[in-house]
Specification:
- The protein has 453 residues and is of the alpha/beta class.
- It has a domain of 256 residues: Rossmann fold (3-Layer(aba) Sandwich), CATH 3.40.50.
- 41% of the residues lie in helices and 16% in strands.
- The strands form four sheets. Strands 1-4-5-15-10-11-14 form a seven-stranded mixed beta sheet, sandwiched between helices.
- α11 crosses α13.
- It comes from Allochromatium vinosum (strain ATCC 17899 / DSM 180 / NBRC 103801 / NCIMB 10441 / D).
Length: 453
C-alpha cells in the first residue's frame, strides 16, 4: 500500500513557462476600457503605472509565456512547493475521498503571493523603476512585495487596509523589516484618502480605497510604478506555477482531481491552482469541477453583478468586466482581509459567467472551525483566507462519506496563519461573530456602476 504523505519535485522540475488561459477560452475576454473614452485601453496608456513587460503579459493570448531565469532563481528558495496527501484529515473525517493540498505557506513571506511579487519586481527592475506602490489587505501581498523589493533593490510603499493594519501588527513589522513603508489606508497622504476620511472619518478602509491611494502616487512620479497582488491577468498568470507543479506531483501520486478548490477574493490563488486543470479540460482533457470559495460577508461571485466597473474606489483605474459589488462598497471587517474586495478577477469572472467554475460562499465562524479541524489533523494552521478552501474541501469530503464516492479533492492551502493568531485567539475566546454585509450599501454601490455605451 502506498502511504506517501508528501510529494516533492526537484528544482529541475520547476516550470519554465507560465500557462495563459486566454489561449483556451471558448469566448475571449471583454476588453479593458479607458475610463475617459470607454474605448479599449492601449499598452501606451497603461505604461503610466505598469512596466512594459507586465503589460505585454496582461494582453497576451499566447498559451505559454517563458518565466525569466532571474525569477526562477529566486523561486528556487522555496519552489517547487510540496503537495501533501491529507491522510490524517481523511481518517478524522472517515471519508473515502482522497484529499490533496498544495502548500504555499513555505514561501519566505508565508503565502502564494510571493510568486507574482518576485516576477513583478523583476520586470520593474529591468525598466529601471526605483519605487513601487501597492495595496494590501491582510498583509500577505504587502509582505511578499516588500521581500521582492529588498531582493531587487526597489523601494516599496504599501497602503494597508486600516482594519487589517490594526488587526495584524506583525504583518506590518514584516514589511518594515524588509525596508518597506507601510501606511494605514485611508490615509492623509493622498487626495483620494483624504476624500474618504472627510466623508467617513472612522472608515475601516477597503482594498478599493487602498488601490486608489497607491495608483494616485504611482501616476505622479516617473520613477514609480504600481503593482497589484491579484485580479489582473498577469498576476493570475504568474500564479499558474502552483497548478503546473501540482499536475506533475499528482502524476507521482497516480491521481487526478475530480475537483479543484481555492479561496477567492481577487482570484489569484484560485487561478493559480485551477487554471492549468481548466486549460486541460478546455483542450479536450478530463473534466474537473473547480470551486471558487468566497466569504459570505463579501459575496462578489455569488451575489455580485457581471458588469464593467472600476477596480478602485476613487475611479482612477481602467474599467474591467467582472463580477462586482460596486466600487464604493466597503465590506465589513472580518478577519480574512485578503478576501475583502468588491470585484473579482476578469478571467475568473468570465469563467463563472460561462458556467465553467462553481462559486460558493461560507461564513467566518464555520471557516475558522474548519481551519482548526484541519490544523489538528495536519499540523498546519491556515491563514483565515485559506480556511475558506479548507471548509469547502471538508464539506466535499463529508459528502463523499455520505455517498460512498471516493472522489479526489485538490485544494490550495495558499498561506499559513502564523501572523493571524490574534484572529484564532478571538475565535477561541468567542469574540468573533459572523458579519453580514449591508444589502442597501451594495444596492447603492451597484446603482453607481459606470454606464457603458
Amino acid at each position: 500500500m502506498n502511504d506517501t504523505v508528501k510529494y516533492l519535485l526537484d528544482e529541475q522540475h520547476l516550470p519554465r513557462f507560465w500557462y495563459n488561459i486566454n489561449a483556451d477560452l471558448p469566448k475571449p475576454l471583454d476588453p479593458v476600457l479607458h475610463p475617459g473614452t470607454q474605448q479599449p485601453i492601449s499598452p501606451e496608456e497603461l505604461e503610466v503605472i505598469f512596466p512594459r513587460g507586465v503589460i505585454e503579459q496582461e494582453m497576451s493570448t499566447e498559451r505559454e509565456i517563458e518565466i525569466p531565469e532571474p525569477v526562477r532563481e529566486v523561486w528556487r528558495q522555496w519552489r517547487p512547493s510540496p503537495l501533501y496527501r491529507a491522510r490524517r484529515l481523511e481518517q478524522a473525517l472517515k471519508t473515502p475521498a482522497k484529499i490533496f493540498y498544495k502548500y504555499e505557506g513555505v514561501s519566505p513571506s508565508g503565502s502564494h503571493k510571493a510568486n507574482s511579487a518576485i516576477a513583478q519586481a523583476f520586470y520593474n527592475k529591468v525598466e529601471g523603476v526605483k519605487r513601487i506602490t501597492t495595496e494590501t489587505g491582510a498583509g500577505q501581498w504587502g509582505s511578499s512585495l516588500s521581500l521582492a523589493g529588498s531582493m531587487f533593490g526597489i523601494e516599496i510603499l504599501v497602503y494597508m487596509v486600516k482594519v487589517s493594519y490594526n488587526q495584524k501588527p506583525y504583518r506590518r513589522a514584516f514589511m518594515e523589516a524588509f525596508g518597506a513603508q507601510c501606511i494605514a489606508s485611508p490615509s492623509n497622504t493622498t487626495e483620494s484618502g483624504r476624500a474618504v476620511l472627510a466623508e467617513h472619518p472612522d472608515s475601516t478602509g477597503s482594498l478599493g480605497i487602498a488601490i486608489s491611494e497607491a495608483v494616485e502616487l504611482a501616476a505622479q512620479r516617473e520613477d514609480t510604478k504600481y503593482a497589484l497582488g491579484s485580479v489582473l491577468n498577469h498576476v493570475l498568470l504568474h500564479q499558474t506555477v502552483i497548478g503546473l507543479e501540482a499536475m506533475k506531483q499528482l502524476e507521482m501520486a497516480d491521481a487526478y482531481p475530480d475537483m479543484v478548490i481555492g479561496c477567492t477574493g481577487g482570484g489569484s490563488n484560485f487561478a493559480g491552482i485551477a487554471f492549468p486543470f481548466l486549460g486541460e479540460q478546455l483542450r479536450g482533457g478530463r473534466q474537473v469541477e473547480c470551486i471558487a470559495v468566497e466569504p459570505s460577508a463579501c459575496p462578489t461571485l455569488t451575489k455580485g453583478r457581471f458588469a464593467y466597473d472600476f477596480g478602485d474606489t476613487a475611479h482612477l483605474t481602467p474599467l474591467c468586466k467582472m463580477f462586482t459589488l460596486g466600487s464604493s462598497f466597503v465590506p465589513p471587517g472580518f478577519h480574512a482581509g485578503g478576501l475583502r474586495y468588491h470585484g473579482m478577477a476578469p478571467q475568473v469572472s468570465h469563467l463563472a459567467e460561462l458556467g465553467l467554475i462553481a462559486p460558493r460562499s461560507y461564513n467566518q465562524l464555520e471557516c475558522f472551525a474548519a481551519g482548526l479541524q484541519f490544523a489538528k489533523a495536519e499540523g498546519i494552521i491556515p491563514a483565515p483566507e485559506a480556511n475558506h478552501a479548507v471548509r469547502a474541501a471538508i464539506h466535499e469530503a463529508e459528502k463523499c462519506r455520505e455517498t460512498g464516492e471516493a472522489k479526489t479533492i485538490l485544494f490550495n492551502l495558499s498561506g499559513h496563519g502564523n501572523f493571524d493568531m490574534q484572529a484564532y485567539t478571538d475565535y477561541l475566546g468567542g469574540k468573533l461573530k459572523d458579519l453580514d454585509y449591508a444589502e442597501n450599501e451594495v444596492a447603492m454601490a451597484l446603482a453607481g456602476l459606470p454606464s457603458i455605451g
